Amino acid sequence: MQKFPMTAQGLAKLEEELRQLKSEERPAVIRAIAEAREHGDLSENAEYHAAREHQSFIEGRIAELEGVIPSVEVIDVSKLSGDQVRFGATVTIIDEESDEEKTYRIVGQHEADTKQGSISLSSPLAKALLGKSVGDSVEVPAPGGARAYEITKVRFV
């Protein structure tokens, strides 16, 4: 069985999503389907088809989460330290071309969210950063051409 590295916070977030899907979303969509059925002809009932589509999404996500959660290997980031980039590190980098500073936390693939500043361990940027230290430069392949970044800070929170 494949293990997925994840932070304790990431696992808690997935477990909460699963709980919400099972206890709130699933019953709500079942009620919506029942209500839509009462409106008559199902072949031309847009509400019914939308509810069924939403139910399909919910059931798919429940199945995905039920497959991932038992395979999670929780890594306690609070016990990690050092100046080398590893799983769980919060890394500050500077784009060597634009001098733009960015900070990312390297997490498991099922908890990554770039809008929240976390990137997947398997992303090209994380792969380039792993094993490097403050002061190192890395080159990351990108659609518009390779980008160079300098690591300015590594911390474990």
Automatic annotation (TrEMBL):
One of its GO terms (molecular function) is DNA binding. Keywords: DNA-binding, Elongation factor, Protein biosynthesis, Transcription, Transcription regulation. Pfam families: GreA_GreB (PF01272), GreA_GreB_N (PF03449). One of its GO terms (biological process) is regulation of DNA-templated transcription elongation. HAMAP family: GreA_GreB. Necessary for efficient RNA polymerase transcription elongation past template-encoded arresting sites. The arresting sites in DNA have the property of trapping a certain fraction of elongating RNA polymerases that pass through, resulting in locked ternary complexes. Cleavage of the nascent transcript by cleavage factors such as GreA or GreB allows the resumption of elongation from the new 3'terminus. GreA releases sequences of 2 to 3 nucleotides. This is Transcription elongation factor GreA. It comes from Teichococcus oryzae.
